[in-house]
Protein 1
Amino acid sequence: MSFEKIEAPDIYYLMKMPLNKKIRFFWLILLFFIIIFLAYQFVSPSGDWSCTHSFSSFQASSCLGDPTPKERVIKTQGGPLLILGEPVYFSVFSPRPFSHITIKITYRPHLSSSTPIFEAGFLADKKLWRYRLQPVYNLWLEQGLSSWTQLRSGNLSLFQRKEKFSSLSEFLSVWRSQGSSFCSQPRCLAVYNLSLEEAPPALDLRSLSPVSENSFFPYPLRGEHQFYIFLKNKGLSLSGNLLDLNENKDIDDAEIVVFSGRNQVDLLSLPDRRPQKEESGDIGIIQSVKIVNSDLPSGLYRLEFRAGDDLVLSDLSVNSAYLSIINKIWPFTEEAVSLVTDAPYLQVKALSPAALQTLDFGGRHLELTEIYKQYEIKSKRLGGENIRLSTGSLILANNGMFAASSSALINPDYPRLDRFSSLNEQLDFVLADYRPAIIEDEGWLSSTLEFDASDLYRERGKYSLILSIPGLLAEGGGGGLVEIKSINVEFSGPSLGAKIKDWLNL
C-alpha cells in the first residue's frame, strides 16, 4: 500500500503539471536520450563501433569519406562505385582509437592478367607513406591456378603444378629443413602475402663465395631504402654521409636499423639537430653515419634506412661483398647511372623535368616525357638486366633487387606472385596466405580483412583507407575495373570502463 501512496501523487502531479512545464520535462527526457545515443555513437563505451556505406543507395555514410582522386572513380546513379584507376583513398572516421579493425568489401572484379591483384589497407606511417595492405582478390589464386593441385590449412594454401606433397605440413617440414634445395630448379617457388623473415632463404648461403669483403655504393640515395648484405666474417662495419635538402616542412629525423630475420640486432638513430630551417632549401651540413658492431656473427642481414625524402644517404660503404637494394631505388645524382636488377620489369617515375630522359633497360629503350607518371618496361628474359640512365633522380621499382654490379647482387627472397608473374615452366609451387572470396548473389563477391589497429596512423579522428589494383589506369589500357557495392567497417577494442581503469591504474 505504501508503494501506491508514493507513486499515485507522482502521476497525479504530472497530469496536473502546467503545459509549459510538461514541454520542458519532455525536452529534458529527449535530451537525456540524445546524450546516451551520442555517447554510444561518438564515445563507444562498449568498445565496439561499426558503420556500413552502401554505394547502391543514397544513404549517408556514418564514417566513410568521399573517394579520392575523383578522376579515378565513377559514382553511378543508384548503382555501385566504379574504380577505374588506382589507388583510391577514403578517410574513415572512428569515435576514438581502437585496437582492431575488420573491413568487409562487397565487389565485382573485372580484371585481367595485367591487373590480377586487388588489395586494401590502412596508412601505418605517414612520414614514409607506408600502407599496410591485405589481399581482397587475386586473379591468379582464384582462377589462374585452377588446374594445379591445392592443399589448404586455414588461410595458408599450397598450389602444386605436379603433385609432390600430400599435405601442407609435409611441404612446410621439407621446406624448413631443406630450404629451396627441394626445388628441381632455382626459384621454382613463388609466394604471396607471406612474411618470410623466419623462412629459409631462397638461395643456399653456404654456396656464396664473395670475391671481396667490402662494397661501396657509388650513387647517393634519396629517402627511404632497404638493403640486403651478407657478412662473410663476424662483425659489421658500415659508414656513409647524410645530407638534408630541407625542401619539406617535417623535421628530418632518420635511423638505420639492422635485422637478422625479424629480429632487430642494431639501431643507429640520426636526430635532426641541423640548424638549417625546414622548407628553406638550404642544404644542411654533411653528417657522418657509422655503425661498428663486432658482435654480429657472419650471415645474412637486412638494413633499413628510415628517412623522409629530404634526406640523402651517400658514400655508403659496408664490409660485405654483397650490397643489394630491395624493391625500390632513388639514385640522386645529375651524373649517369648504371645499375643491374634481377627482375624482368621496371617501373619508373620522374619527379622533376630535369629527370626526363630516355633510359635503357636490357637493350630496350623507354622515353620519359611526363613527370609524376609511372612508366613500365618489360624484358622478354627472366634473368638479370642492365639499367642505364643519362642522369639520376628517377624512382625505379620492381619486386627484385638493384645493385651497382652483378657481383654485388644478392636476392634471398622468393619470387612474388604479382601482376608481372608468369606461370611458366620454371614455377612449380605457389605458397599463399589468402582467404578466397565469398560468392554472394548476382555475381557479387565479398572479402573480409582483419587489421591490428594499435599502430595504424590516425589523424583528426580518421584513418586512411586505400584500395589498390596495381596497373589499373583511369586513362584506359585494357586493365578492367572494379565495382564496389558496399564497405562495412567494424572497430573493436577495450571498453571505456576498461580504459578508465587503465588510466587510473586500478
Protein 2
Amino acid sequence: MRHRKDLHPLLEGFQLVLTPGDKAVIVGEEGNGKSTLLKWIVDPALIEGYAEAEGMRTDQGEKLGYLPQELPESDKEKTVYAFFSAADSFWEQDPRERRQLLSRLGLPEDVCFSDQLMGTLSGGEKVKLQMARLLMERCDVWLLDEPSNDVDADTLAWMERLIRDFPGAVLFISHDEALIEATANRVVLLEQLRGKRVTRWTVANVPFRQFMAEREAGFTKQAQQAQSERREERIAMEKFRRIQQKVEQQQNTISRQDPHGGRLLKKKMASVMSLQRRHEREHSQMTEFPERELAILVKFHGEQAIPRGKTVLDLSLPALTRPDGTVLARNVSLIVRGPEKICLTGRNGVGKTTLLRLIRDQLTHRADLNVCYMPQDYEELLELDNNPIDYLAPSGQKDEVTMVRTYLGSLRYTAQEMSHPIRELSGGQKAKLLLLRMSLSGANVLLLDEPTRNFSPLSGPEVRNLLRSFPGAIISVSHDRKYLDEVADKVYSLTEDGLEMA
C-alpha cells in the first residue's frame, strides 16, 4: 500500500488474521496509514483517490460493520430519520429492542425519527447515532475508526463494555489510551522509519500496556547489547592494530639474509589477515541499534505567561442557547484567573462547544489577551485546498517558508506531504497543523475543543506534556481521561443547571 501522489510506502507485506473474540487496536503515528488500512478492508474503492494497494482480504461470509472517523459528507445532509431509513436493518428492528438500545446510549427513544440534519449534531451525537445503526445491523466483525471521539464519559464507559463483550472480532483505531488499555487484547503497530521511506509493522497478541512495556524493554536491551558489542569491538580492534603494526614493522626491518625469519613473518601476516577477516564477519553480525519513530517535537514560541490572579474570564450567563433559540443550560458562571488549566465536560449535546465558542467571541476582543482557538471541526479554520506551507506561511516570504518547513519536519511531515492539499491529510496531521499554528501565534490563552482527539497514543503523552507546561491559561472541552488527569487544574461539568465542579 502506497500513497498515490508521491508513491511513498504506507504498508508492505502486512498480514493479519482475526478470529472471534479478538479486540485488535491499530496504533501508530499520524499519517502512517491506519485509517487507510481500515478503509481498504471495508472497501478498496474508499482509498482510490489518494492511495493504491495490492492484496487480498478473505472471509467466511461474515458481515462487516464500519464506523468511519468522520461522518461522510453525503450523510451530513440527511436528516436523522433519513440516515436510519437508509439501512434495511432499521425496519427489521423490534421497536422494543430499539428503545432499549437507544436508552443505553443515552438517546431519546424517538431520536431515529428526528428531522434534524446529521451535520448539525455534536461530534458525540454523530458517533452515538452511527453506533446505534451499526448495532441494529447485527454484524459479525466491527471495523471502528475512532469510536471514542467526542463522546461523553458515560458513553465511553458503555463503549468499553460494548467492545469487550462483543462476541465477534473488533479491529479499531483509537487515540484514547484508557479505552485501548481497557479493551484491546491484540496490538497492531504501524511505523514509518528513515524519513518515511521504510515501513515496519508489528502484530502482538498481548494487551496494549504490556506491549508498550515489553517494546520499551526490548529497545533498551537491544541498545545495551549493541553498545556492549561495539565496546568489545573497539578493544579487539585496538589489539589487532598493535599486532598488525608490529608484524609490518618486522617485515620492514628483517634482513634478506634470514629466509627462515621471512617465512615466519609471512605466516604471521597470514594470521593477521585471517584475524582481520574474522573481525569483519563479527562486525557484520553485530546487533543493530534499535530503530524507532521519533516523537513529535514542538514547543510554544514567544508565548507570554499570565500573571497569577489576573482575571482571564468572568462569565455570567443567564441562559446558554443554540442559534435556533433552544435553551441548553441556565445560570452558567465561570471565573478563570491566572495560568489556570480549565476543562469542561458533560453529556453530548449539552452545549460545551457552543459555550466555548461564546467564550472565544468574548475573549478575542480583549486587547490584553492573545487568544488562539482550536475547534473540534478542523475545517472551521483550515482551507482544505491549501497545502500546509501556504496555510502557515501565507506571505510566501523565503525566511518564513524556511522556518515553517523546519517546524513541519519536526512534526514528521515529509517534503512531499508539506505540498499536499490539506484535505488529503489525516485527521492527526491536520491536528498537528493547528498545534503548530498555536505554538507560533504567541498566544497566552488557548481555547481547545477536544485537543487530543486525533493524536496517537504515541504522540499523546508529548501533547499532554506540552499543554501542561504552557505558562498561559487554557480553557478546553475534553473527555480524554488522561488529559483530565494530567493537564486540567479544574474540571467543570456542564449541565442544564449550569457548571458544576466535577
Protein 3
Amino acid sequence: MAEIVGIGANVFDTVYSIPTYPKEDTKMRASACKIAGGGPVATGLTAAQKLGAQTAYIGVLSDDNGGRFLKEDFEKYGVNTDFTEIKSGYRSFASVLWLCADSATRTCVFDKGNLPPLVLNEAQNQAIKAAKILMVDGNEMDAALEGAKTARENGTRVLYDCGGLYDGVEKLLALTDIMIPSLEFALAHTGCKTAEEAAKKLYEAYCPEVVVITQGKHGGIIYDGEKALSYPIYPADVVDSNGSGDVFHGAFAAAILKGYDYLKCCHFSSAVSALKCMGVGARESVPDFETVKKYLKENGYEL
C-alpha cells in the first residue's frame, strides 16, 4: 500500500518558454513549448515518489486528452492510480503557463474544468487509513475534509499545502498535523505583518505539530510551539520556477518518512526545490535522493 496518498488538484499544463513578456495585442515566438502535469498535491506526490516514497493519487480525472495524459504521467513516474476514478464527457482542469527568461518568473492562466467533485469510496478511505501521510491542498475541499477526519482517526498524519484561501479552509487547518503555508496565505489568513507572527498565530489557533512558512527566494521559517527557526534557499540557476512549492511539499513528506526532524525536512525540501528549478518541468526535473544528498553536501549541509 502507498505510504503517502493525496487528495487535490491535478492539472494539465501547457508550458511556453518565452524571452520576455509580450506587449498586449502582439505576437511573439516561444523558444519552446511542452505539456506537463501540474497541481499542488499531484506534483507533490510525484516528487515524493521520485525521492523514494510509495505514493497514490485519490481523485477524479476525465477521459479527455488532458485526463489521459495526467493518468499516464502518474504511471510513468510510478504514482499509483488505483484510487483514481475516470469520468467520461468532462473537461479537465487545465492551465497555460509562460516561463519568462529575463525575469525568471512564471505566469499562469487556468480553467478548472467541469469534473464532478470527488466523493470518497470505501477503497479510497481504506487507502487513507493504511497510509502514513495524507497530502491535501484545499482543492476537492469536501473530500479533503472527510479524508483528513479519517486520517486523524486512524493515525495517518495530514500534511496541508496551504496555498489558496478556499471556503472552508479553517476546517481543514484544524485537521492538519503538518501545516506548510506560503507567506502570502499565512499573512492573508492571520492578518499578521511578519512570517514569524503568522506562524505563531497559526500554531496557537490550530495546534498542528509544526508550521512551516515558505518564503520563496528568502527560504522560510519553521515554528514548533517553542521557537521559530529559519531555513535557507539553496543556490540555483533558475530555468523554471513553476511547481517549486508543490515539489517542496512532496519532498517534505518524503523526508518525514526517512525519519528526519522537521528542520532537516526543511533543508532537504529547499534543496529539492532548488534542483527542480534548474530544469524545465515541475515533475520531470525533480532529482533523486542521492542527487539531493550530494548537492546538500556540496553546499555545506549534511543529511
